[in-house]
Structures are given as structure tokens and as C-alpha cells.
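Protein in question quoted for reference:
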Amino acid sequence: MTETAWQRRTAPASTTELEHVDAWWRAANYLSIGQIYLQQNPLLREPLEAEHIKRRLLGHWGTTPGLNFVYGHLNRAIRDRAQRTLFVMGPGHGGPSGVACAWLEGTYTERFPDIGQDEQGMQRLFRQFSFPGGIPSHAAPETPGSINEGGELGYSLAHAYGAALDDPELLVACVIGDGEAETGPLAGSWHANKLLNPAADGVVLPILHLNGWKIANPTLLARIPEAELVALVRGYGHEPIVVSVGADDEDPMVSHARFAEALDDALDRIAQIKSDAAAGALEQRPAWPMIVLRSPKGWTCPDEVDGKAIEGTWRAHQVPLAEVRENDEHRRLLEEWLRSYRPEELFDERGAPRPNVLGAAPAGELRMSAAPVANGGELRRALALADFRADAQQVDPSERGAHSTGSTAVLGEWLASVLRDNPDTFRIFGPDETASNRLAPAVYEATDKQWNAETLPVDEHLAPTGRVIEVLSEHLCQGLLEGYLLTGRHGLFNTYEAFVHIVDSMFNQHAKWLESARKIEWRAPVASLNYLLSSHVWRQDHNGFSHQDPGFIDVALNKSADVVRVYLPFDANTLLSTADHCLRSTGYVNVIVAGKQPQPQWLTMEEAIEHCTRGLGILPWAGTETEDRPADAVLAAAGDVPTLEMLAAASLLREAIPELSLRVVNVVDLARLQQEHQHPHGLPDAEYDRIFTLDKPVIFAYHGYPWLIHRLTYKRAGHEQLHVHGFLERGTTTTPFDMVMLNELDRYTLAIDVIDRAGLAESHGAARRSFIDARDRAKAYTREHGADIPEVADWVWPGAASGS
């Protein structure tokens, strides 16, 4: 810990300091309103006219003055204490605030030199906001200092705690809107304070901003008795400091003094806790301070418009004056409102901020808009990754599939080395499923689960510091990981496939952030967000229909091809190769789907690396085609269980119809099925045609919903010959083979489909009938014995049995 970290205040904020904060606040408010309304006349050098105002008024004023108020006060404290601070703006729809504060600090001009700190730059700043070809109305990657978009509310506190992990000198000031506080993700995030280590991690200062209203309704936390609110946040493990500002007829300097005292109190308490933690003097988990700030909605806007109350009501949420181009009285009120901040005191003749505005602001990297952690790609260091080949499963090409093991357990051995070799830059997050997904026991031999709540003698692998974080909220796991990645670190989120849907929307928001960030030169790429989806649809036969859903793949592939990758490794070696690739990548969302149950191992490590590098390919050992006997049909698969069933079908056909020439194809990288112009991984048409043929039937066994494969390939030649088998939304508690039979993905159905599509139903009717009978026997056996028939359960690839 440096000498300047976690300093205490030696004296109350002076009048001069508070006057500087007030000037900052007024300037930021002026700039925020200008962004919403103005396209010309930024300094009001002439009376406001209709042509000075944008035709479309977009943005959110209601939360913005409170954000500017908090930001200005944090600036004073940062300057006073030399405290590294990241600002997380929960109400990210208050985007004008983030832009205004970054412009005042000079960071905006550093990032966008054409928007200078002068009158012309101010006009460009105003015009671009919510304007075609400009910037979004919410805080976004374009906003320096932002890691939280805030378009969809609820993620700020989880992002804040993720950012604080492994950064013991970082303060994360997180403003939580009272509307946001009503969301499920935010409610779960309050418990993250039981996960951080007071000595080894940074500190989150939640600032619950109660302005009383959402877009059209009051907020719950602003309408409950204060004693109930205080009891609630104390129950979450915080010691609240309640402060109200902006009361009617109150001198703003009184509000500033009151909040400055509250903020200094909170920071002094934090400094004491950090000092005690460093000295080993904490006897129990500390009650961290937080601030509950009450301020009027739309503070400082007109009290009343057209006889209706505006300030302090939901009517101030977005644009308080909506008809300023057409209505002279509204335009007069807007000009009066803007001039109430006394812009001539805030900006000099050039339009630059005057010294009094910047008097309490920090400089350099202490500026929150210039905080390096808010552009985490600049801090990211490549992981030290052990050679995954050391964990390879030995596969004898003459006995493929003879050995079975759980692929995720093998991955766990390698991940344990990643955890050991990257003790402060890599973490695994999961909703109580790291052990269930078989990454344990290996990862728990390398690290504990981080836990700072009570422990009991019966507990295992719980410790104040650990590289695995388990909490039964997928929202919190995802949010912590996002905050960790966006501030320059690496991680993996492992969860059950069916329940990753809980974070569908969070995934959407992060993917959009990554896509936007790619277009911003100064945003350095962050490490990819890596999902490991296990306990998947085909091996949740014991848990039943509720646990059987492979649809996250479809959700993922709806996002931009620039940022999303989906991989379906089908044995341990392909999983190791895929995971190594994903952990080395930056700027993507990687979705890896892999089963945890024992399964046959098919490829040598050298073959697996080559196959994964190609993304898909022919398995020559599984088919029967030769140069003299071109393929009559193609059996293709994507996913571990579909590959098993496809190989079993190929085996049945090889024995029953030896003259049938078969080609067997496996797909690991789903994007390879798309065309080149659709996805960077897309396979050229000529290569696709070479692999799948132009006119032969292709029977495709797919892990998920079958229509996705059709969607990815609908423009390919021969698409009418493609017949996909996958999950048909038929599930229950049953046996593994009955699950594939229910969904027509079983080996017998695949073999029958090949016979039918290849025109062999009449000439090989006996073989076809034998497969139908075998399927019926298998189904009847499950009903009688509650287990799969031995000829299926004990099946091995014929080469494994014969040694050929």
C-alpha cells in the first residue's frame, strides 16, 4: 500500500473548496443541459432562438444533476487524499453527466481532439449528443471513465465489486439509482461485500441516490420509512450515512457542506477499516460505510411548466421542457434555466472552464474520467498459460473411444495451473457449480473459494482470499466478471447450460459494449468474457425438463459476428485446445459448451489442435469413402453427445451396408458454417462445398435447436440436402439414451435417416427394420429397467474393440 492510499481528512472542507465544488456542479449542469437541447449558441452570447435548439430532444435530465453533484464532491476528496478512484454510474441514462465531467477534466479533449475546451469544442460537444453520427444518450464506451453503460439498469454494483477485486488501493464509488435498486441483479449485488477481502481487495462505496421517481412512477426505497431503509442496508452489511440535499429555499452551499461532511465521514471510516485490515486487527467482517443521498428529481430545473410541477417529480426524468422550438414561453424558461448557472462565471471568453471550476478537481490519472482502470485494456497483461498438452488424454488411433473420462475434469487440471500461475489476474466465477461441473477437485487444490462471511468447522475450501467466487446469483457472477475484465483482468464463468439464460440480457449488454468499444481507437481491448456451459441438455436426464435447454447458443449468435464465438469441443483434448485459445483472446464473448460426464476420447492432442484450428473437418477414420468411392452421404455433428451418436450411427451403417460410402464431419466452431461475408470465421463456399458436397444428403446431429444450423447455412449450395437433428423441446427425467431418442437424435434414427435420404429404403429394408427394432428394444428396456440397454450403454467404437 502506498503512502498516499486511504488517507484521512485532517480538517473539514473549507468554504473555498466548497465554492469550487459548487462552480464545478453548476458548470457540469450547464453542459449537461446544453447537450440535451443546444446545437448552436453554446455560451448564450445572444438570445436563445429556435434555430439554436435541436429538432429532436433526447436524453435524461432527472438523475443528471445528482450525478454531477456527487462527481464534484468526489473530485474534492480525491484531490485531498490522492485516492485512486473509479466512478461507476449506475443511472447510466444520465449520460450527459459523464460527458460533461470528462470535458471539464480535459479528458474528453485528450480522447477526442476535435472537441476542444473552447466555444467551438463546446458546440461540437452539444451537437453530437443523441444526434445522428454522434454519441449515445447513455454513458457508453465513448465516455471516458465509464465501464458501465446503464441502458439496462441493475449491473452497477456488481461491476463495482468486480473492479475492486485484486486492487487493494482502488476506491470504486458506485452511484445506484433508486429505480435501479428495484432490479433483481442489483438486489443480489448487495451481498458481494461478503466476498471481498478487506486487505487484498479494493473498496466499494455505494451511494444510493434517492431522487424519488422513475420514468413515470415513484421509487420504492424513496417511499419507505427511513428507519426501514436504514435497517435494510444494515442488514446487507453496511453502515449507512443518510444525507438530504436540495430542500426548498436551501442555500446550495449548505447542501454542499452537508454532503462533504458525509463523504469525508465515509472515507475516513474506510481508511480506518483498511488500516486495521493491513495490520491484521479486524476481528470480524467490517460494516462498510455507504451513503444514502436524497435529492430532488431534476434538481435545479424549472419548478413548474404550464401549471404542472416539474422539479422533484417524474416529469423531470427525461426532457423537462419538450416544446422549446415551437413554444416561446418554453424557450424563455430554457434560457432562464441555463442562465441560472451564471455561465459567465464558469467559462472564459474562449469557452474554457475558469480556474474556479477546476479548483477542486484532481489532475492526471487521478481524474476519474482518466482512471486507467476505466480503460482496462491498457492495464491487461497476457495470462501465463501452462502448456495444455501436458494434460492431454492419451488416445491410441487404433483404439479410438476405448478410454472414457469427464472432459471438464481434465480441463480443471489445466485451469488449476492457470490459477497458480496468475495469482492476481485470473478468477473463476460460478453459481455454486464449480464442483458440480467437475472443475473440482483440481481447482480447489490450487485455490480456495473467496469468502468473508462466517465459516464453520464443516466448511471446505472457504478462505478470505481465493481465486474462485461462488454465489448463487448468475447475475452477480456475470457482473463481477464483467467488472473484473473491464478493469484489465481475465476470468471464466462456469454454469449450467440451462440457467445461463438468466444472464441473457447481461450478455447482450456486454456484447454491445464490446462491439462499440472496437470502434474507439483509445479503448484498448479487454480480455474476452469466457463462458463454460456444462451440465448440458443431453446429460441433465436426472434433473429433468427444467434443466434441459441449449438455447443460449441461439441468443449468442444473434449478436454481432465481430464479437461472438461459439465452440462445441467433443472430447477432452478438443476442450483443452479450445479453452487455451479462448483465454488468450481479447475483445470477444466465447461460449464453450462441454459435458462433464465420462465420455469417449476420440482425438490425439495433435489431431485435436489441428481440428480446432480448422474449426471443423472430416474425420477420415470414421467414414468409409475412398478416392475410388466418393461419399454417398455425409454424417455431420456438433457437440459431444451428438458426435457420439453420429459415430455410433456411422458404425451401424458400416456394418449393415458396407457398400455405402460415408463421410463423417465434426464441427467445433459453429461460425465456420456461415459464409465469409457473414462471420470472420466463415468458411469459403468452395471449402464448404468440398466438405459437405453439393448434392449428397447431409444428416447433421446438432447439440441445440436444429433450426439454428439451417439459419447459419441457408445460403449454402446444397442446403435442401441438409437435414438437422437436435433438441426438439422434448425432455423429462429419464435415461441418457432415452433423452436422445425423445428428440430423434439417437444413432438408430440417424442411421435410418441416412438410408432414407440416400434412397436405400427399398434395397436395404432389412437393415432399416433392424434399426427400428433396436430402437424399440432400447426404449422398452428403459421402461422396464430404468437404465439404458447394455448394447448402447457399453458401446465402443468398433476400432477400439478390434484394434483396427
Q: What stands out?
A: The chain has three domains: 38-375, 388-599, 615-802. The first strand starts at residue 85 and ends at 89.
